[in-house]
């Protein structure tokens, strides 16, 4: 009986390894296709906020965070890190300029309107 249990255990290990290898292969394929998509639509991702948001939502659903690091693959490929860094600088500039009027605190709608004017 012990021999049969060992055989089942070995078979289970073998099936688990096959599934793990297959999953790794699928993830590699998916990442390659996601990179190709990002490269192909790079300009739309950078320039179109709605498209960028949809791309980010799609990435988030599959566990990829293109905004995770300024020095990461996605920031390098898409320049996303630069975009958000520049946006952050503009937000700080607006808040500092408005500080004499409101202490540097600003309504989000007002901030968005001021960013659009820039």
UniProtKB/TrEMBL annotation:
Belongs to the SNF8 family. This is Vacuolar protein sorting-associated protein 22 homolog 1. It comes from the Eukaryota. GO terms for biological process: protein transport to vacuole involved in ubiquitin-dependent protein catabolic process via the multivesicular body sorting pathway. InterPro entries: ESCRT-2_cplx_Snf8 (IPR016689), Snf8/Vps36 (IPR040608), WH-like_DNA-bd_sf (IPR036388), WH_DNA-bd_sf (IPR036390). GO terms for cellular component: ESCRT II complex. It comes from Prunus yedoensis var. nudiflora. Pfam families: EAP30.
């Amino acid at each position: 009986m012990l021999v049969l249990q060992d055989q089942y255990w070995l078979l289970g290990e073998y099936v688990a390894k096959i599934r793990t290898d297959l999953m790794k292969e699928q993830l590699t394929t998916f990442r390659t296709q996601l990179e190709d998509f990002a490269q192909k639509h790079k300009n739309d991702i950078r320039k179109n906020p709605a498209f960028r948001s949809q791309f980010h939502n799609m990435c988030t659903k599959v566990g990829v965070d293109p905004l995770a690091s300024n020095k990461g693959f996605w920031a390098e490929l898409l320049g996303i890190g630069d975009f958000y860094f520049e946006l952050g600088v503009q937000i700080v500039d607006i808040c500092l300029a408005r500080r004499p009027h409101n202490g540097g605190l600003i309504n989000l709608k007002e901030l968005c309107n001021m960013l659009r004017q820039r």
